[in-house]
Each structure stands twice: as C-alpha cells, then as structure tokens.
Amino acid sequence: MRAAVLREYNGDLSLQDVPDPVCPADGVVLKVLACGICRSDWHGWVGEHPKVKPGDIPGHEYCGEVVEAGPLANWRVGDRVIAPFILSCGSCPDCRSGHSNSCAHQLVPGFGRPGAYAEYIAVPHAHNLTRLPDTLSPVLAAGLGCRVTTAWHALTGRAALQAGEWLAVHGTGGIGLSVLLLGRALGARVIVVDIVPERLEHALSLGAELAFDARDGDVAQRIIAATGRGAHVSVEALGIPATTNASIECLRPLGRHVQVGLPTGHTATMQINMNAVYMKQLAVYGTRGMPSWRYPSLLDLIERGVVDVRPIVAREVPLSAASVELRAFGGPMPPGVAVISEFRG
C-alpha cells in the first residue's frame, strides 16, 4: 500500500509502498477514505511527542471502509465507519466506568502504531468504531475522530456548558472552530481569540459574538470588560503558556478552564497563574478525546442540522501534500483544516 512515512523530524514525509496491514482478531482493516491533518500530528513531526519516531506513519483522525474483519469484530466488509483516535481496550476499570478515553491500555494510531496517512490501516479493538451516517461525507467525518469529538466532550462532558453562558476560545484552528460551532449550537455566547485577522473574521462569520486579536494588549482583561465579569467557560486550544494563562485569567469567579491544546515537548511543563485559580476559585479541567459511547449525542446534532461542521474543513489535499500542511503549523495559518482525501497522489 501507499503511505507517507516519517523519515526525519521536520523533513518531508517519504511517500513509499509499505506492506499491507494485518487484520487484528478483534479488529478490522480499513480502506482509508479520509484523514485529517492535525496539530497533534505536527507535534510528532517536529519531534516533540515521545511516542513518534522516524519510520512511523502519522495520522489519527480518519474514517474508512471495512475491507477485512477479524473473527472477534462485529463488523462486515463494506461497512463504513468513523474511528476515534483513542482505541480503548473495553475491559479495564476506566472503560467499564464509561471513561474509555482514559483507558489504561489505549492504542492511538500515529502515536506508537501505524497511522492513517496511508491507503489502509489496521484498527484493533473495533468495538470503538461507529457507523458512518449516509448523510455525512468521509471528508467531514474524518474530523469527528479527533477535533469535533474532543470539542464536544470538552464542552459537555467536562465543562457542562450552559445556554447563555459566555464561552471564550483561545485559538481558532480545527479544535477552536469546533468549539465555536458546538458552543453556538448549545446556546453559548462565544468569544474567539487569535493572532490571524483572517481567522478572526472567519470566526465572526460563523457566529462568534466577539473576536479579539491577542497582539493588541491584555486579552483577558478585554474579555472581562466585554462580559462584565469574565467568561463562564474558557477553552485553550493550542497548548502554549500565553494562551493557557489568558484562558485562566479571562474567567469570572467560579469559572471553568478546559485544557484541550496538547502541551508536549517544550510546553509539557509551563508556568501557570495559580493565584488566579486560587483567588477566583476556578475549576481546571483537562480533556482528551471522547468516550466512543458518546458518538450518538454528537451525530444526532449533526444529522438534525443543529450544528453544521462543514466550515471546519477548508481544503482537501492528496497524500503528497501532507508535508506542506504539517510545515504550515509552524506559523500563522488560514482558516479551516486540511483533510487528505486522495491516497495515491
């Protein structure tokens, strides 16, 4: 099969033919229909994720068609499925308690096992998969494996966002746009923060009530001034100190900060304004992925037209363009995300 292989950090991925994957007994082999290019992939590409090594195939945000099913997998050839990026074991205490995104034995494609920048991918623990609705294109569905699901769980499974609350979003990449669209669908008043004017304008066109350029001074104080007391919920979507502290500091007393951006490599440990956490008695939540059993609640909103995820995807690219897209994460980016939809090119 054709795959894009990491040969050296910060270098172009190598397009090459590699052996087809072997089907796990409890899993499936998918023909990859689409795979998102995510900032988490970039962290691995630059060498800042401990599980990503030269020789690996990236890609964790994918959907596909079953071409082979193991004897213990409850799927058939021809089924089209969405795959969460966290493949939980299904039997550990976390899985049994409904928190499969905290599974102690989880597997993550692209991070320690072959990913989906390839024509085919082996997916163990196929109980995690969800059927792809006929109304949802593979390109849009690819984002449901990571960005949209992560945003949904951050807002509903962690922060318990309520209608009418002020929601601040720091960073308007794939996660940030997902938080904006879902927050609006839940009835929140959304404020977005970024440093790229085009992205701020795009967010306003999608329903953000306010948009602040973080280069124009103390964004936390501007959010407090605009809302009266501060945001009720604030989501950090980049994983860097400046936006993490801005997210914490923009909250009102008893507000909720949700850390969605991935802190890894040189940002794994950062200096945080804990005095703000203490004085305002804030709640600080970490979140990563979404338990697979929560897919129906999200798919129901999408299928009923309550939320439109189409604005998240800005461009479809061939596999050969993955390196260009990864390199772009190192600087200011245009609105929307890229999805690989052609795997021979």
Automatic annotation (TrEMBL):
SMART domains: PKS_ER. Keywords: Metal-binding, Oxidoreductase, Zinc. Gene3D superfamilies: Medium-chain alcohol dehydrogenases, catalytic domain. The keyword Metal-binding applies. Its cofactor is Zn(2+). InterPro entries: ADH-like_C, ADH-like_N, ADH_Zn_CS, ER, GroES-like_sf, NAD(P)-bd_dom_sf, Zn_alcohol_dh. Residues 11-340 form the Enoyl reductase (ER) domain. CDD domains: Zn_ADH6 (cd08260). Belongs to the zinc-containing alcohol dehydrogenase family. PANTHER family: ALCOHOL DEHYDROGENASE-RELATED, L-THREONINE 3-DEHYDROGENASE. This is Zinc-dependent alcohol dehydrogenase family protein.
